[in-house]
Specification:
This protein is mainly beta. It folds into three domains: 9-16 and 148-283, Jelly Rolls; 27-144, Jelly Rolls; 296-333, no CATH class. The chain is 4% helix and 40% strand. The protein has helices spanning 117-126, 241-244; strands spanning 27-34, 42-45, 49-52, 65-71, 76-77, 81-82, 85-91, 94-95, 102-104, 110-114, 128-132, 134-144, 153-161, 167-172, 184-190, 198-202, 210-213, 221-222, 226-230, 249-255, 275-283, 301-304, 318-324, 327-333. Strands 1, 2, 4, 10 and 12 form a five-stranded antiparallel sheet that branches. Strands 3, 7, 8, 9 and 11 form a five-stranded antiparallel sheet that branches. The radius of gyration is 21 Å and the shape is globular.
Length: 334
């Protein structure tokens, strides 16, 4: 029986040892704001905003993340009527590409946005703006936790899909601002149990908003650690992307699935375990599998820059990603 090995950089599994799902973790790259006795937390209310100039992001890199600590997110208007409270990050009054819709609730204390290539361009040109309904901000910082942003990623990070849960990652349409007609959209997953999960891609809840559904043959090609949608086969090209994005966001729904094919029952262990969605990638060549497993020590060594681009020839001083077979690490050339 042949074994198979994922062979593209975009499918690299990233370590989460340094990543905390609550709070900030990793190396501090830049502290932009932190409340203290002399400088209290500030309020964002009624879609007013705070600005931080481009100079704060001069040392930021693709794969770093913006961390915003949130406190006292208000969930009721006048303490009576419930309302939607959310946070958005922008630059020059435009949503940052690679940012997600984030509804605030009683359990939301932290907002993290991993920096893509397009997001970094906007931050270094126009800085950061934080908008929202009604909450206070205690910290704004940039961290590096070792996350490797895949080449071609329009979003990256950790979006948890729990056992027995339908979850929806809502990616703002600005992620497609530089879409150049790439054929495939790939959704990267971290350690699901198998390929029996459900994954749907849509822009609205209406039938005309469906891009692809895993329940329809030929629309979503599922593998254990990634799913692929052929955008061209679904009629999506650079010429009509604005029309196809018929709302302000792309929604990626996922569910781990059940072992018996029935509805999840919390009273019995019939559901598969949860997993993270770690990237949404646009590529011209879909990820594939090799017919032969190559041992790491026998595989060729490849180098990539922090943006995920392959580097050939002699390496100049700087930080690089080293890949040999299925082993990936960061190295510093001095």
């Amino acid at each position: 029986m042949k074994k198979f090995l994922l062979s593209t950089l975009a499918a690299i599994a990233v370590s989460t040892a340094a990543y905390a799902y609550d709070g900030a973790a990793g190396d501090l790259v830049k502290q932009i704001f932190k409340a203290d006795i002399e400088t209290p937390a500030f309020q964002i209310k009624d879609w007013n905003h705070v600005d931080y100039g481009a100079e704060y992001f001069a040392d930021a890199s693709v794969g770093n993340y913006i961390y915003i600590k949130i406190v006292n997110a208000k969930l009721k208007k006048d303490d009576k009527t419930e309302f939607f409270n959310s946070i958005e990050i922008k630059s020059s009054d435009q949503r940052l590409p690679g940012s997600l819709y984030c509804k605030l609730d009683a359990e939301t204390y932290h907002y993290r946005a991993y920096i893509t290539v397009d997001m970094l361009d906007k931050l270094q040109a126009g800085g950061l703006q934080i908008f929202g309904n009604d909450f206070y901000v205690e910290e704004v910082s940039i961290y590096n936790d070792g996350f490797v942003m895949p080449a071609g990623a329009i979003w990256g990070g950790f979006f948890w899909v729990g056992k027995g849960e339908w979850k929806t990652l809502e990616l703002f349409e600005q992620a497609f601002d530089t879409y150049a007609g790439q054929r495939y959209l790939e959704v990267k997953l971290q350690e699901p149990e198998n390929e029996l999960y459900t994954l749907n891609v849509r822009t609205t809840w209406n039938p005309d908003g469906i891009w692809a559904e895993s329940g329809v043959v030929g629309q979503v090609e599922r593998h254990t650690t990634f799913s692929t949608i052929d955008l061209h086969n679904q009629g999506i090209t650079a010429a009509n992307i604005t029309e196809k994005l018929n709302s302000d966001r792309l929604m990626i729904q996922s569910y781990p699935g059940t072992k018996d094919g029935a509805a999840y029952d919390p009273g019995k262990d019939n559901g598969y375990n949860g997993y993270n969605i770690t990237a949404v990638v646009l590529v011209n060549q879909a990820s594939g599998v090799e017919d032969l497993v190559v041992a790491d020590e026998d595989a060729p060594i490849e180098y990539f820059n922090i943006q995920g681009q392959r580097v050939n020839g002699d390496l100049t001083p700087g930080l690089y990603i080293r890949r040999q077979g299925n082993s990936v690490s960061k190295i510093m050339i001095k």
